[in-house]
Design goal:
InterPro entries: RmlC-like_jellyroll, RmlC_Cupin_sf, Uncharacterised_HutD/Ves. The chain has no helices and 16 strands. Helices cover about 0% and strands about 60% of the residues.
Length: about 190
């Protein structure tokens, strides 16, 4: 397990130059935008416009903060995403355009290379103690709001708002969590 502190995340321009992204984690470590196997990042979207195209990549997006945006995804009906919406999966290699509802938003993006990986993204609200089963080999838990403490296999630690926990060899184990927090769990698998 590795704690990733919010203050250490890498800031970089969007692939299309239209904004800035905050990279939480990427594999392999230090992979560029063309060479990652998987990537978890946050971005602030302040203007309407197209998403960057990532050939061979699947993406899931969820709104963390703000009043929402409409995604126009080629071949689909427009989708309104708000902080209450479920995470939305879509291919990252087709045209997608964003229209803001009322001001800037911050989103969480999970991307995996379609040829060898798949992912899921779920929102988890924690109020007290819980045991979270981990079903995939690689998991990332982002503490978006609040704070929590965790335990797994004799290791323990804490996450503040914005911090993340990256867990390798996670399948078949459980993470014990205490606290009050809104979290997002990313699970990355080999299909």
């Amino acid at each position: 397990m590795r704690i990733l502190r919010a203050g250490d995340y890498k800031r970089m321009p969007w692939k299309n130059g239209g904004g800035e992204t905050v990279e939480i984690a990427v594999s392999p470590d230090d992979a560029g935008l063309a060479g990652f196997d998987w990537r978890v990042s946050m971005a602030t979207v302040a203007t309407n416009g197209p998403f960057s195209i990532f050939p061979g990549i699947d993406r899931t997006l969820v709104i963390l903060d703000g009043n929402g945006m409409v995604l126009d995804i080629e071949g689909r009906a427009p989708a309104l995403l708000t902080t209450a919406s479920d995470p939305l999966p879509f291919p990252a290699d087709i045209p997608v355009a964003a229209r803001l509802q009322d001001g800037a938003i911050t989103d969480l993006n999970v991307m995996t290379r379609r040829a060898g990986l798949a992912h899921t993204l779920i929102r988890i609200d924690i109020d007290g103690g819980t045991s979270m089963p981990l079903t995939s080999s690689t998991c990332l838990l982002l503490c978006h709001r609040g704070a929590l403490s965790f335990r797994r296999d004799g290791e323990s630690g804490t996450l503040a708002a914005g911090d993340a926990l990256l867990i390798a060899d996670a399948a078949g184990t459980a993470l014990e969590i205490d606290g009050e927090a809104r979290c997002y769990l990313v699970s990355i698998t080999t299909p």
